[in-house]
Amino acid sequence: MRLALLFALAPFPALAQTFPLPAACEGIVTVQQADCTVTSYFDCAGENPEHLRFVSHGATGLIAAGVLTRAWQWLEQDWPTGRETLVPGAADPIDQVAVLANGEDTFDFEMDSAEFGRTRYRGHDRLTGASVKVGGVEMLEATFGIEASQNDTVTMSAEGTEYYIPAFGILASGTARFDYPDQGSFETDATPRAFAAPGEDGHMSIIPQFGCGG
């Protein structure tokens, strides 16, 4: 399934409330976030069992889609403006298994894009030892730092919090500060506010519930 095709199909019909899973795919969990975003994770029979997919929707519709390994290495990322794919032979892939086992992990890999060019991402993830619960779901708090560069020139850096969620095998964003040399800085808060597992109300919803104003 070419992820960019999702954007060709979006927005879905006005009455649609849930993401139409492709045939042979099953939902894992839907996460309602503080920044007027809802993200659903799913996997598909016949694909690599170590991979999973996600779709993120905002107030105006689909804003991102992608493929990850279950260790959380980015493989494909699609936005309305372009697409990135992992360059084979990553020096140090993202590994959330290592974070959970050892408390921290580093990463160093490249993504290639016809629209954006080749970008190198380097950084770290580190558990803080703290945990919180949202709707009874335990979230292990971590901090992260990441730097993006092209042709040895830094194009973006960020640091903040994130959450490992063992019950669903996912990593969720928290608060972050992004710095762009040519655009300044901004802060975000995508902290999970609610979860919906298969069979629960809100599973595969495309309607964000928090932080949308009005």
In round numbers, the mean pLDDT is 93
Computed over alpha carbons, the radius of gyration is: 17 Å
Number of domains as seen in the coordinates: 1
The succession of helices and strands, N to C, reads: HEEEEEEHEEEEEEE
* Overall body shape: globular
Give the oligomer, counting copies of the same chain as homo and different chains as hetero: single chain
Structural class: mainly beta
End-to-end Cα distance, whole Å, is 36 Å
Total E-strand runs: 13
Strand content: over 45%
**What is the count of helical runs?**
2
Characterization of this structure:
It is a single chain. The chain has helices at 4-9, 96-102; strands at residues 25-33, 37-44, 51-58, 61-69, 74-79, 82-86, 104-112, 119-134, 137-150, 153-165, 170-180, 184-189, 192-196. By secondary structure, it is mostly beta strands. The protein has one domain (4-196). Keywords: Signal. Residues 1-16 form the signal peptide.
